[in-house]
Each structure stands twice: as C-alpha cells, then as structure tokens.
Design a protein that fits this description.
Blueprint (H helix, E strand, L loop, with lengths): L2 E7 L13 E11 L5 E12 L1 H6 L4 H6 L2 H10 E2 L4 E2 L1 H8 L9 E9 L8 H13 L5 E5 L7 H4 L5 H5 L9 H13 L4 E2 L5 E5 L16
Parallel strand pairs: 6-7
Antiparallel strand pairs: 1-2, 2-3, 3-6, 4-5, 7-9, 8-9
Amino acid sequence: MATLFLRYSEQCFAQDTEPSRFLFRISGQIVLTDEKNAESEAGTFSATLIDVKGAVIEGESVFDVFDSDSVYIGYFEALYDYDEDDFKNYVTQIVCEDDFLSNPNLLVVDKLVIYPQYRGKCLGLLALRALIHRHRSGVGLIAMNSVPLQFESKFVDEKNSDLFKRFGLDAFSLPKNKATAKLRKYYGRLGFKQVPQTEFMVRSTDLPLQDPDLQSSDSC
C-alpha cells in the first residue's frame, strides 16, 4: 500500500533582530512510497508560519512583520485588525461563525505542487491535510492564495522556464477565471472558505480536520 508523507527542510537563525524573524519558512518534498518502501518525489511544498503572538510579546509591530516581505502584507490587510493585532471579526465569522479564534498566528501555504505523473490521485489534498495537521497547534488560521500557480506573475512571462515545465503548468489550459473557480472548489473539500473581495482562502484550526472526500465527483 502506497504511503504519502512530507519531508521537511527548515532553518532558524540563532541571531536576528529584524521583524522578519517572526516569519518561519517551511519547505520540503511530498514523497510517495510503494509497497516495497521505494520512495518517489511526487511534489513540493512551501509555507510560512507568521508568529503574530510572538511579535506582540516581544513588542514588535505586527504590521512591520507582515510588511517585511511584500508577499504577506496583503494577508495582513485582508485578515487582521490593525488596532487589535488579531483577526478581523468578519474573518472569524466566515471560518467558524464565531467572533474569536484561540490563536492569532497564521500559516500561509505558499506553494503546493504535485508533479504531472502523480496527478489525479488527490495527493494534493492529502499533502495539504498533512501540512495542516502538523502545524495546526501553532496557528489560528491556515491561508492560501486561491489563484492557480500558472497565473502567478513569476510564471506568466516565463512559460518556457524549466520550473514551469517541471511543475507541468503547461498542461493546464483553462482560462484564469475557470481555473480559479475549480481550484477554490478543490480546496473547499478541506474546509477552506473564500474571503470576499480577496484572492485568499482560509480555514480555522479550531474546526475538526476531516479526511478529504476522495470519492467526490470533483477532479483530484
């Protein structure tokens, strides 16, 4: 029986005084083993844990933490109350129909790619579930940009790049609006919900983490 697991590669600097020290980068490979325990790299992932609680304790500006990397300032503006250093009430209402989450920290799933030869088996959902399970105790929300990777700016003008081809992004032919709707439906199977007027989807870690419906009629 095949087994899927995440192999991590992480680092943490011993001395750092910049606001970015509260951004913890997470990356690794998505690995599949067969019945003989032979391993195959089926994909790759990267994420960032943003330690809002730690920043508050240390007297660091939460805005400056997010602003230390232009990728994340949009998440701050969409999800956080500037004055409270916590999630906006309407965001918590979206994810759990409540006005409070137990932890202000955020895990941003930056990238999750299944290589072309391994697609169609719901490995992306299984890998995402494993990522959430591993980090849910340290954050209140899991968030991601719901625009498909092939439409990110770094790939739009580099469609012949080795990375574009390695990720098999040239295999996707749907226009952006249809591809985005399909991806949002796909991640919705793990409980992610769209934040109105943004490109972000979020999921509360206070909710039970169910196994994805692998028998769903939705494409894997």
